[in-house]
Amino acid sequence: MKTRGTHLALGAIVIGASIVGAPGCSNKAEQAFEQQQAPAAIGASASVKELMAARGLSEADVEAALKTYMPTGKKDEYMIFASGGQSGQVLAIGVPSMRLLKLIGVFTPEPWQGYGYGGESDKVIAGGAQSGHRITWADVHHPNLSETKGDYDGEFLFVNDKANGRVAVIDLKDFSTKQIVPNPLVGSDHGGAFVDPNTNYVIETSQYPTPLGREYAPLSEYKTKYRGLAMFWKFDRTKGRIDPAASFAIELPPYTQDLADAGKIGSDGWAFINSFNTEMAIGGTLQGKPPIESGASQNDMDYLHVVDWKKAEALVAAGRATTMKGVRVLPLTVAAEEGVLTLIGEPKSPHGCDVTPDGTAIVVGGKLDTHATVYEFSKIKDAIAAKRYEGKDAYGVPILSFKDSIRGQVEIGLGPLHTVFDDKGFAYTSVFIESKVAKWSLKEMKLVEKLSVHYNIGHIMAAEGDTVSPDGKYVVAMNKMSIDRFSPVGPLYPQNFQLIDVTGEKMRLLSDMPIGIGEPHYSQMIKMDKLHPVKMYPMGQNPYTDKIDPQAVTGGKERIDRKGNVVDVYMTAIRSHFTPDQIEVNEGDTVNLHITSLEQAEDQTHGFTVNMYNIDLSLEPGKHENVSFKADVPGVFPMYCTEFCSALHLEMAGYLLVKPKN
Ligand code: RUQ
Ligand code: CUA
User: What predicted TM-score, i.e. pTM, was given to this entire model?
Assistant: First the structure.
């Protein structure tokens, strides 16, 4: 009862606080970190005011706490899927609590999920090999949720690996990675993994130009042999996999293509890619030449790439593509001639490329410009249809007039990057150099408010902000630096996600979430009720084929089969034993373990490991795993369950005995 009384008291304070509080309006210098005192020993009976005084909390702090605190057992309203950056993983985070719910193994092995340690998931990671090289990390940039009619449908998530030119498919039925597709043509990607409004395609555009097909050509042949690429990976929703054979690509000039976005509603069927380094600088610092950073900043304008992908799709179907490393590629000459690719000037080192929820405009930031430039799709479309070109680039690609293609420009501040949208016609742009979130009106094309964030905001994200119907409510600033925000942990600082309330007239900073893995880039936020993950697998399910595994074992059918020096062990796991729990093989034998979890109770997960063989499996209820290894070291190897599954979990163990040859 006392607790309830406290809540009522808090409520009263908050009503007052919402008038007074103005959090986050001071600048970086003014926000010098105050070492907060540890809470004094206050009993439950202490008044809220005393508690606030003891912890040095303002009324605005209390309001923010009330908006984000999640009592035990209560659930969040939204889920964020955030890039895990170089960790190669994806983070699932609850909003507004900003609690980490899961770290999804994607490109990098993740032991807790038994991802990449001998089991079936090894095949997913192996599928992501480039030129025969197994790669176990990634530079994850942009997670994108699958869409139906332009709205998140909660079924799949796609992420790109900038470093190695790959795209992964995560099934939100079980929050696990099902496929990694290496792009056989490019050396890196950045404009991905964006989807069109019905997830026909997952778009991946290259970043640093290379000869297509991952071939060799000297840098002196950069302009003639190096190229960019826009890849359209066909997504087969019924299979839940990308179908490389049904995919196609468009060859692009060797400008450094950057972010991308797909059109929606009226602009569906089109894609937009910003670019920098249209100077085609290649560096050469040791030879006394300017580094790429200065070589690439000579021109006042780079190019927004406007891609008519529906037309490209038709041309590819009509046989106008050439095949390269198994991918159908529409040549640059065809793309230029047929109006598939058109360029428009973009001010100074552009970044960000975001289509508005109504599909009528594209917003581009400029790292060295102070504006957000808003391109008007109808003007672009009309000019392309009428072939009203201002000229052509060196590759014959038509260029439209900048002036005639824009709705206007909004003065934002220093270093505008990415833009997201709410439900009230406002846009929110991350302003990197100023460490601010700029809120501006799309209708009036005017800056409304700026909020300080901490610090060096890269991406910004809004609740359902990439859909045709954003929710508003929350914006998240994804900050690259956290200087004075958290307790020190050595020279590599956490990055900082800041949750911002955008329901009121003024933006309010609610909370900070230090991200202990990095470097996160983009994220998306989906309404929790759109997600319907399974609670357990049907008995014997192989999550990587989405079928009952042919080697699945049922209770009573456990056995050990030996054929020559191949030993197949058909095994089950249920609280709190493995059957069989004694496996004896000869040195040099190939051992195939087929393990089915017979559990059909929620949250009853077992793990499985064998000493020394680098095997680690997660056996969620019903799951089946297959793992093979060569018993090349004689000895006695304990195997056990790695999840504390029951009172007799420690007893859930057994032995692998490998008899020496002689
Ligand atoms: S890019 S901020 Cu991929 Cu802006 Cu990260
Ligand atoms: Cu099963 Cu511990």
Answer: 0.92
